[in-house]
TrEMBL record:
Keywords: DNA-binding. It comes from Nocardia terpenica. GO terms for molecular function: DNA-binding transcription factor activity; transcription cis-regulatory region binding. This is HTH-type transcriptional regulator AraC-type N-terminal domain-containing protein. The keyword Transmembrane helix does not apply. The lineage of its organism: Bacteria, Bacillati, Actinomycetota, Actinomycetes, Mycobacteriales.
Length: 331
């Protein structure tokens, strides 16, 4: 029996196509040549890995630029890779962020892997591509190392920059574009590995966006997205993802914050549809969780019916009365 063809998330190819369009490529032509459709690029979709890998050579052809992968990497801004970026930026330190970069790369692509390797005075973030070869591999690697270096600089508030970048590809005619994107003059070709190097002393640099509570929640959520054939990342200690979700929902209600599905989805750096699927996987629904949270919060609230209704997110007291009737009916 034939094994199913490998598939990967659309997060990375979607950004690559968007960046190429911003750089002047025709989006309709890009979609045609990559054999992708707008619906295939919707959030949380999985596409054949062969199609995801194909975007590199198509974009190079469409932009007519031998340094297209570097140009696309230059368009990177923290957050464009969705959950993958937030796993980095919410980490405590650069060292934690690099670990998250390697462990949770599958949230952006399953066609590649990354590994953190410690040496005497430095640390390498090594990159390896499992799908594609030859020139395609070179393009994907240039982009990946460009994004890794941008992440380090942006994530630390420009306090840290790579001290060295190595690529296994042959030397290009000009090194200038590589030096500019990687932010260092120390760029070697024909290297043993594809890697970005930082000083070991920089690992303790704190990240301005650090949020330990959110980081733990995001890691639990990322684990839910883990492909069945992918080795699991370290499981953070603590309660289950559903318990974490309920804590966040209760906190939003207690603060009088908006409790719409899209609001909670943004908190977890995911789409509303993905959040609904996660809840379904845990045997529950958004409506059921919101009702339960409102019932918990109502027990501790005091005030008029209108005040309580408003605090729980209802438009009027009558809506709250209908909800209470529904809750009592299902007991």
């Amino acid at each position: 029996m034939l094994s199913p063809a490998p598939r990967t998330t659309v997060v990375l190819p979607r950004f690559v196509l968007t960046a190429a369009t911003e750089l002047g490529a025709d989006r309709t032509q890009l979609l045609h040549e990559t054999r992708l459709t707008p619906s295939m690029l919707e959030d949380a979709q999985q596409i054949p890995t062969t199609l995801a890998v194909r975007v590199w050579e198509v974009c190079e052809w469409a932009l007519d630029d031998p340094y297209s992968a570097l140009a696309i990497a230059s368009r990177y801004r923290m957050g464009v890779l969705d959950l993958y970026d937030y796993l980095f930026v919410t980490s405590d330190t650069l060292g934690d962020g690099l670990s998250a970069t390697a462990e949770y790369l599958f949230t952006a692509t399953t066609a590649c892997t990354a590994t953190v390797v410690e040496r005497d005075d430095t640390v390498d973030l090594e990159f390896s591509m499992g799908e594609g070869g030859g020139h395609t591999r070179d393009l994907a690697t240039q982009y990946a190392l460009g994004v890794f270096t941008h992440r380090i600089v942006q994530g630390t508030g420009k306090r840290v920059a790579p001290v060295h970048v190595g690529l296994t590809q042959r030397p290009p005619r000009s090194h200038e574009a590589f030096n500019d994107i990687f932010g260092t003059m120390s760029v070697d070709f024909d290297a043993h590995t594809n890697s970005v190097t930082v000083r070991k002393s920089d690992l303790t640099v704190p990240l301005p966006g650090s949020d330990p509570v959110l980081a733990k929640i995001l890691k639990r959520f990322a684990t839910q997205l883990l492909p069945s054939d992918h080795p699991p990342p370290p499981d953070p200690a603590g309660t289950s993802w559903l318990a974490e979700f309920r804590i966040v929902l209760d906190t939003h209600l207690a603060r009088g914050a908006a409790t719409r599905l899209d609001t909670l989805a943004r908190h977890f750096a995911i789409s509303p549809r993905t959040l609904q699927r996660l809840l379904t996987r845990h045997g529950t629904t958004w409506r059921g969780e919101l009702d339960a949270a409102r019932r918990r919060e109502m027990r501790r609230l005091h005030g008029t019916s209108d005040e309580v209704a408003q605090r729980l997110g209802y438009s009027e007291a009558r809506a709250l009365r209908r909800a209470r009737h529904r809750w009592n009916a299902v007991r």
